[in-house]
Amino acid sequence: MPRTAMALDVGGTKLAAAVIGDDGALLSRRQVSTPAREGLPALEDAVLRVVAGAVEDAGRRPDAVGIGSAGPIDPSAGTVSPVNIPAWRGFPIVGLLERALPGRPVRLAGDGHCMALGEYWRGHQTSRALLGMVVSTGVGGGLVLDGQIQAGPTGNAGHIGHMVIDPRGPACPCGGRGCVEMFASGPSMLRWAHAHGWCGSDAGTDTRALADCARAGDPIARQAFDRAADAIALAVLCAAALADLDDVVIGGGVATGAHDLLLARIRDEVRRLAGPEFIRRVRIEPSALGGDAGLLGAAALALNPAAA
Ligand SMILES: [Zn+2]
User: Fold this and answer.
1) 139 CA distance to ligand 1 middle (Å)
2) Distance from the CA of 142 to the CA of which of 130, 163, 242, 274 falls in 20 to 30 A?
3) pLDDT mean across residues, the chain
4) What is the mean pLDDT of residues 162-168?
């Protein structure tokens, strides 16, 4: 019988769980909104319900468990402290899943790592060096070299959103300055657009409205996407120079809704600025898996411990 994994994707806005076969097939999938502003009992209950629901729908207990979580995380301690879930600071999520599915090994990685692993496993298995980028509320990522996610000694390698691309740029909540995230995350793009006179979407939280205005020819909206694309291109150039990348796969909610506004400009900037042929050759592609990349990567983590 083929092996299956319970994949859990923990984010500040949603919790998703799926039972996934070793061929990548989703046997079940459940999703709930993260009760991010509530206390521990509500959060634990939401995780246990979404996991139990996915097991029930699949009709079988999975053989292994993989968790991809928003960071910071501590894989060696099995704990997570997602920035957007204040009640979870050093929360032992691995222990929670061990109790929910006794006897099953549980593995934990960052959400950016899982996205990159998912893209490698389901879309780019011949890639020798793949960078996955999640462009969303923040900018994250993961680097897969020769089939293995590169986590680094503290589990934080691949944090491409905090590469500094402008030393005189805006201060970043991470403590740095001029990070990619300050140009290319959804909130950063909206903040810049509002500060420069864009008056769409009063709530200021909707990059889809910004994208629609850019497509309609609004110069400020267009410029917000160009700045984001240029920042991503600089990060890609540095990463490609460092890691001899075959592929850069760009996903996440903001990018997925605006590939038409971002990808061509990113590719053009990389070609314009790159010197050596090994950098120029990097392929820059949209995510093929969309919102399920993190779940598939968590399954890959569970079913192939050699990947992490
Ligand atoms: Zn930063």
Assistant:
1) 9
2) 274
3) 93
4) 96
Phi, psi of 218 (to 5 degrees): -65, 120
Model confidence at 274: pLDDT above 80: yes
Predicted confidence (pLDDT) per residue in 95-123, tens digit: 999 999 999 999 999 999 999 999 999 98
pLDDT in tens, 71-94: 889 999 999 999 889 999 999 999
pLDDT at 277: 97
Whether domain 4-114+292-307 has CATH 3.30.420.40: the reply is yes
pLDDT band at 241 (very low <50, low <70, confident <90, very high): very high
Measured in angstroms, how far is the CA atom of residue 37 from the centroid of ligand 1? Answer: 24
In this prediction, residue 306 carries a pLDDT of 65
Paired tokens of 97: 């899943």
* The two domains 4-114+292-307 and 126-287 share their CATH topology (first three levels equal): yes
Q: CA angle 199-134-231, nearest 5°?
A: 60
Spacing, Cα 268 to ligand 1 middle (Å) = 25
Establish whether the linkage from the previous residue to 72 is cis, with ω within 30° of 0: yes
Distance 237 CA to ligand 1 centre (A): 18
Range 126-287 has CATH code 3.30.420.40: yes
Query: How many angstroms separate the alpha carbon of residue 160 from the centre of ligand 1?
Result: 9
Tokens 């500094």 map to which residue? 164
Give the Å distance between the CA of 58 and the centre of ligand 1: 40
Residue 305's pLDDT is: 64
Distance in Å, CA 171 to ligand 1 centroid: 8
Structure tokens of 55? 């097991």
Say how many Å lie between the CA of residue 253 and the centre of ligand 1: 19
Q: How remote is the CA of residue 59 from the centroid of ligand 1, in Å?
A: 43
Whether residue 204 is predicted with pLDDT greater than 80 in this model: the reply is no
CB-count burial class (<10 Å; 0-12, 13-18, 19+) for 40? exposed
Residues lining ion ligand 1 (Cβ < 5 A) are: 162, 172, 174, 176, 179
Separation of CA 155 and ligand 1 centre (Å): 17
110 CA distance to ligand 1 middle (Å): 17
CB 180 within 8 A of CB 231: yes
